[in-house]
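testing teh design pipeline on a random one, pls ignore if ur not involved
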């Protein structure tokens, strides 16, 4: 049987030379005369980004990790020609070093269920025939030939699919509202303006399976009666733009886009609009303003886009992940999709797992999977064996969830009940070395940079919040500042114009709720328990010092003194707390207090 060498072509792996690896594989296949025996091509992201570049070889489903171009010859000579494993490139289980040859046996993948990411890592995203070969565009054909527009809406409603962009609004209901809006012209928009820190779910879908989004948008256009659609994608996603552009051209060439699609009277065209990377443009009214060429600022709602959106016409907006679920729901049925997940949150959710966890990457799990399962069974636990402290879900709009809620099932309502939210799916793990005041400052600083400034609570209120947090981390705050922090947060939530401002104080409120003692330690005792806040730190040299003089030589403030082979001393009145001595000491004799 002919072997297929699949090489991850996602942004993470391409930045680690996976395209050079592909070129080398193709060259060696010709050099060894193996064209009839094997072939090599790229795929979308396989999710296990920390282990990239990843190579899979079918039909045995062999899974190689961290493969470099110089490893290509050994793979060709050993796996392809001799049909033996290249053991040194197999995934090794941490702790036991057991070699695991197949993807399905690796713990990172065992509890995952790929629906939105179903084709990523399998098909070549640049070849439309491969998408069609895996059942692509059958759902569109089915809708055009077999289902009325109302029947398609019923299927989506029965599936229980809710928007994956953060709000969780029922998708079928949104489609129905837009369809029922009377107008001579309507639009379909895909929100690919993924701006959460650490989130790359939508980018990976567009890079690895762009045709699934095109197919879903065509189905949506048929249902609501639109002839034109746009994918609003941030310009920082060059690979996703390139592959989506190729996919749109291929779809046009074979009659999937354009006039009289698949021989019917349905016509639909699709284009791309590029965003400049403003987080607020993920909000649908700001996005619409940006598509129209105006400043990307939100508008008050109502009216909602389903009645008055792009150019004042009814407009359907869903994000990439939501659309990626549509074709498979049509093909396999609402009941199949409905059987996955919880009572009120159906299907799966893709998360970008990052931070202090061992297995960093993209994971897709059924709704209802617990945080503990994601962090420990899939994520492999906390790095360096440290203690878990919190996980931030929902990006800058979400909140922190602590150890006592690790068994919370992940769904829209459970996360809100814990003071956080699903958001678009960013999940950042923190350990005992993270300062929660510093974390709140990090997210609020992001919001400050990204606020459009249109409404006063967001523009001025968040600035004042940030200033209070700075006072706390500098050891200059009072107990009154702590009260003001909560009061102002609640005012901003209640009075901001759009979701960005309304959710901006969430990281502040959730950290102060769960880690109030840590805030009080900063305010009352001028101490940072995690030893992160620079103004509250002091560096000291212990008796373990061997007097090597290295710390004195690298100190930019020249505040370390001591003779050779004698314990050195730091003058903290001159110390600028840069940490150069702490990081450079060869015997770890310098401590933070």
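output:
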């Amino acid at each position: 049987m002919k072997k297929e060498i699949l090489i991850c072509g996602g942004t993470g792996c391409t930045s680690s030379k996976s395209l050079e690896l592909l070129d080398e594989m193709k060259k060696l296949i010709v050099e060894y005369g193996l064209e009839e025996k094997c072939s090599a091509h790229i795929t979308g992201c396989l999710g296990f980004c920390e282990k990239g570049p990843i190579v899979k070889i079918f039909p045995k489903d062999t899974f190689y990790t961290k493969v470099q171009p110089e490893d290509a010859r050994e793979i060709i000579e050993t796996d392809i020609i001799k049909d033996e494993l290249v053991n040194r490139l197999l995934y090794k289980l941490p702790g036991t070093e057991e070699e695991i040859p197949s993807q399905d046996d690796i713990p990172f993948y065992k509890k995952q269920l790929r629906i939105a990411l179903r084709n990523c890592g399998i098909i070549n995203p640049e070849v439309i025939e491969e998408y069609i070969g895996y059942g692509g565009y059958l759902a569109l054909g089915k809708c055009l030939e077999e289902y009325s527009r109302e029947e398609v809406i019923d299927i989506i409603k029965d599936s229980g699919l809710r928007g994956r962009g953060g709000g969780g609004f029922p998708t079928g209901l949104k489609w129905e509202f837009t369809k029922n809006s009377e107008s001579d012209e309507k639009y379909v928009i895909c929100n690919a303006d993924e701006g959460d820190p650490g989130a790359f779910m939508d980018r990976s879908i567009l890079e690895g399976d762009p045709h699934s989004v095109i197919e879903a948008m065509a189905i949506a256009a048929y249902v609501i009666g639109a002839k034109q659609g746009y994918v609003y994608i941030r310009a920082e996603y060059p690979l996703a733009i390139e592959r989506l552009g190729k996919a749109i051209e291929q779809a046009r060439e074979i009659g999937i886009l354009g006039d009289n699609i698949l021989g019917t009277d349905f016509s639909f065209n699709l284009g791309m609009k590029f965003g400049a990377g403003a987080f607020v443009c993920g909000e649908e009214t700001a996005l619409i303003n940006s598509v129209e060429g105006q400043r990307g600022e939100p508008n008050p709602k109502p009216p909602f886009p389903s009645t008055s959106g792009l150019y004042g016409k009814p407009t359907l907006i869903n994000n990439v992940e939501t659309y990626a679920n549509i074709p498979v729901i049509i093909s396999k049925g609402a009941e199949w999709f409905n059987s996955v997940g919880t009572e009120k949150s159906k299907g799966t959710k893709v998360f970008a797992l990052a931070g202090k966890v061992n297995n960093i990457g993209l994971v897709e799990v059924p709704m209802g999977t617990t945080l503990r399962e994601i962090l420990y069974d899939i994520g492999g636990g906390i790095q360096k064996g440290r203690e878990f402290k919190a996980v931030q879900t929902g990006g800058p709009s979400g909140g922190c969830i602590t150890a006592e809620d690790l068994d919370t099932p992940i769904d829209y309502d459970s996360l809100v009940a814990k003071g956080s939210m699903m958001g678009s799916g960013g999940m950042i793990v923190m350990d005992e070395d993270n300062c929660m005041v510093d974390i709140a400052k990090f997210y609020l600083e992001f919001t400050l940079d990204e606020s459009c400034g249109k409404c006063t609570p967001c523009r001025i209120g968040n600035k004042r919040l940030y200033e209070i947090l700075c006072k706390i981390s500098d050891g200059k705050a009072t107990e009154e500042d702590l009260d003001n922090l909560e009061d102002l947060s609640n005012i901003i939530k209640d009075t901001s114009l759009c979701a960005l401002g309304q959710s901006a104080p969430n990281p502040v409120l959730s950290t102060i709720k769960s880690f109030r003692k840590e805030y009080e330690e900063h305010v009352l005792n001028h101490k940072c328990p995690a030893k992160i806040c620079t103004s509250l730190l002091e560096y000291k040299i212990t008796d373990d010092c061997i007097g090597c003089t290295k710390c004195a030589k690298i100190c930019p403030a020249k505040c370390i003194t001591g003779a050779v082979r004698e314990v050195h001393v730091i003058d903290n009145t001159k110390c600028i707390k840069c940490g150069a001595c702490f990081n450079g000491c060869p015997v770890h004799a310098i401590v933070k207090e």
